[in-house]
Amino acid sequence: MKKRTALVTGGNRGIGLAMANKFAKEGDRVVILDLSAEPSEEASRVTEESGGAYFACDVAKQADAERAVREALETFGFVDVLLNNAGISRWRSFLDTTEEDIDAIFNVNVKGIYNVTRPIAGSMMAAKKGVILNTASMGGKWGQPLESAYCASKAAVIELTKIMAMEFGPYNVRANSLCPGIIKTNMSHDAPHADDFWLEKTPLGRLGRPDDVADVAYFLSTHEARYMTGQAVNVTGGMIMY
Ligand code: NDP
User: Fold this and answer.
1) How far away, in angstroms, is 128 Cα from ligand 1 center?
2) Which of 32, 56, 120, 194 lies 20 to 30 A from 9 at CA?
3) CB of 34 closer than 6 A to ligand 1?
4) Mean predicted confidence (pLDDT) in 84-108
5) Closest ligand 1 atom to 181 CA
6) Where are the annotated coiled coils located (predicted)?
7) Full 3-state SS string of 8-27
8) Structural domain boundaries of the chain?
9) How large is the C-alpha radius of gyration of the chain?
10) What global pTM score does this model have?
């Protein structure tokens, strides 16, 4: 079978890097788009070993995102799997959330998905194949005090994924969102709660690891998940069940 190209945004570390590692391990060529000018050591290794590449870009900026996607398409021809994973969070009370917080969070978490997907989805629809996975969050369904803008942005990701599924489905392009719970990365490290706060809500009795999410993402990209689209798939250790 022809080697697939998987493009992951925010793949320099955390969940995105685990996705990059998983897809590469399964034989895919991995392309990473990330804000950092230079790849992390592991991102550099995984892109090189899989035959992919690293492109620095800010997904929140349309021209920059389109430039990076164009370079990726010129280099590799086609993106089979798009993982819109880059995201940011800021812990603030509702009343303390500033206009700048709201703009920064929505520009990366929501607008970033439009910026990267627009130039890729057209070629997927023309080829009548392709898979899109958007990293949303449990917070997009549940809500979490001190994360109002983040949770609102992730609810938006869940909804825009459903629209992608409806608009792209007739062209055999599937789109699903992932809703991780508390996954140990830099982002969750910034949360103002001790691990026990989350653990007592988690039936499986441990917090998540980036590879817990990456494994589900990989499954959703495969033929085995061919009849799944428009879903918001929880990876929370049971913390939420709807
Ligand atoms: P990290 O903060 O560990 O990693 C985020 C990555 O995204 C970094 O590599 C970062 O780049 C990159 N990034 C940030 N902003 C931009 C941008 N404007 N353009 C391009 N790349 C950018 O976060 P996680 O791995 O934890 O999160 C990954 C996704 O999972 C996010 O969408 C997050 O909301 C979601 N999520 C995470 C959960 C968790 O508990 N960790 C729970 C639920 C959802 P750089 O290294 O240069 O800063």
Assistant:
1) 30
2) 194
3) yes
4) 98
5) 42
6) none
7) EECCCCHHHHHHHHHHHHCC
8) 5-235
9) 17
10) 0.98
